[in-house]
Amino acid sequence: FYWMSVQTIRNVFSVETGYRLSDDQIVNHFPNHYELTRKDLMVKNIKRYRKELEKEGSPLAEKDENGKYLYLDFVPVTYMLPADYNLFVEEFRKSPSSTWIMKPCGKAQGKGIFLINKLSQIKKWSRDSKTSSFVTQSTKEAYVISLYINNPLLIGGRKFDLRLYVLVSTYRPLRCYMYKLGFCRFCTVKYTPSTSELDNMFVHLTNVAIQKHGEDYNHIHGGKWTVSNLRLYLESTRGKEVTSKLFDEIHWIIVQSLKAVAPVMNNDKHCFECYGYDIIIDDKLKPWLIEVNASPSLTSSTANDRILKYNLINDTLNIAVPNGEIPDCKWNKSPPKEVLGNYEILYDEELAQGDGADRELRSRQGQSQGPKGGRSRDSGRTVLTTW
């Protein structure tokens, strides 16, 4: 059993070294996990997935009168730079007062991220990056630029995001588990959409790697809340029904993002992966998928953190290598409920395609009416009924 870094996995599965894993070897990444965990590839795969569903005439790809996806609009408008520069400019000019966030495709922990609200800032960036990055398209300098969600849900005046852990044991058929003990990461400085604060990352970026340097950072709770606390807070301020709908939509987004990459993922039977999902909720309680991390931080910044990460690793290993037996990559990876710990099954494609799904879909349609009492949002989700 090898818990690999993202670099190591690249070497193990590279064409040059070309290791062959034996049946009793298990590793914690899929060979091309970056299809989901690189910011540019994730967006590319989700866009492709939408187009394919549209071609098939799937009800999931339904659009409203403005041509916006009703169910699949969960990633902020995003362009790759430098490749999509002209498309971005066109979009920017439609709403010149908007703010955009630029991120390097392959970095983590908030490194290299900045916000812009003028085209001149991008031109300056392209000059400053000293590479003629608008000419050479080296992956090193690839950035994504996304419409900044400037109406985040605030709690105590502060912006936060959700870090959720999702374990995938196989992509084909897709089987994934949701960890119940996710958490919210808060900024240390109150949020303001004011453009004068665009450079203040303590206002905009929730990454602990950044916030821990702020003078208001609290080392005891680390600016974190558990997901269950968030849920209680939302139920008491917004009501139970909309809170349940929000969490249902978050689960839906996660499953759709995994389905989007499943066809291109190298589904090696020796592999499993625990992803760190970053979700932002806006003030209309709409969740947005910001990015997916291939090696979410397992170091702890607080006592609670330590307990959470300990349990996360323990529960992950119990599913990946059940009963502490010698691993065998041929075993059917659906462990009994009692070993799941704090994980719950989020989606099981085999089960979903069985006849149980039809029954469950009918019961779901019966009970859940859409927000306006009209057609339920769930009615288009034929197989997504197993969480």
TrEMBL record:
This is Polyglutamylase complex subunit TTLL1. One of its GO terms (cellular component) is microtubule. It comes from Mustela putorius furo (European domestic ferret). It catalyses: (L-glutamyl)(n)-gamma-L-glutamyl-L-glutamyl-[protein] + L-glutamate + ATP = (L-glutamyl)(n+1)-gamma-L-glutamyl-L-glutamyl-[protein] + ADP + phosphate + H(+). One of its GO terms (biological process) is microtubule cytoskeleton organization. Belongs to the tubulin polyglutamylase family. Its main location: cytoplasm. The keyword ATP-binding applies. Keywords: ATP-binding, Cell projection, Cilium, Cytoplasm, Cytoskeleton, Ligase, Microtubule, Nucleotide-binding. It is found in: Cytoplasm, Cytoskeleton, Cilium basal body. It comes from the Eukaryota. Residues 356-387 are annotated as: Disordered. InterPro entries: TTL/TTLL_fam.
